[in-house]
């Protein structure tokens, strides 16, 4: 399904600001895998997501989705395979357009069709049925401007737009981090439901260790550009936050130093 092989990325190579962001990353996902990713600040989590989405190109290594080598394919050409939700609720939707127009754009972007924003009756029904899954009553506000929605509602809409065309890979980049606790909980619950319903292959970066333990069937921990720990389905359900802290200490020989990682 998703194969990252030998991915390396160095920023500002050969300068005093040189930074090895990814150091020989190897990660294979089977269809339907839901992998949560934790790691300290600057561990390389976002850079890895950017390699998959095509926002960045690796110096070495390859990115494969569904058996196709996409390593050099630009981001806009991969969009059909990938759904992504960012931390910022404002990032995934267009505020001056209506809910329906936003959905129409997402629909046409992810379905290999030409850019066509027109909405017929059948499409509108599909949008309404999809919105009902959010339980936010947005299905009755199709002509409301998205800029008028709350942060939580916008993030729920972004999540729906990233998932309703069933992408090959769903990338969630700290997508609950900017929300207050109750909204974060709502989006976490929706994530679980939408991913499970369509059996989406998913990668989710989070600083919330409990969330990383609660969601998904696999977990990876990154540090200094490397994947330092992989936990499979069999072990994940019994794992606790102290276990993760202990694992880090065993591997790195030092205490985990990320206050944000302890939140939640
Ligand atoms: N465009 C860039 N130019 C230079 N350095 C970069 C760039 N993007 C990332 N880096 C550096 O690469 C390293 C990995 O960054 P990345 O954003 O992937 O980490 P992260 O694990 O997502 O961190 P955080 O949890 O703080 O968001 C960091 O040291 C970062 O400063």
From TrEMBL:
GO terms for cellular component: plasma membrane. It is found in: Cell membrane. One of its GO terms (molecular function) is ATP hydrolysis activity. It is a peripheral membrane protein. The keyword Magnesium does not apply. PROSITE patterns: ABC_TRANSPORTER_1 (PS00211), ABC_TRANSPORTER_2 (PS50893). PANTHER family: NITRATE ABC TRANSPORTER ATP-BINDING PROTEIN, TAURINE IMPORT ATP-BINDING PROTEIN-RELATED. This is Sulfate/thiosulfate import ATP-binding protein CysA. It comes from Solibacillus isronensis B3W22.
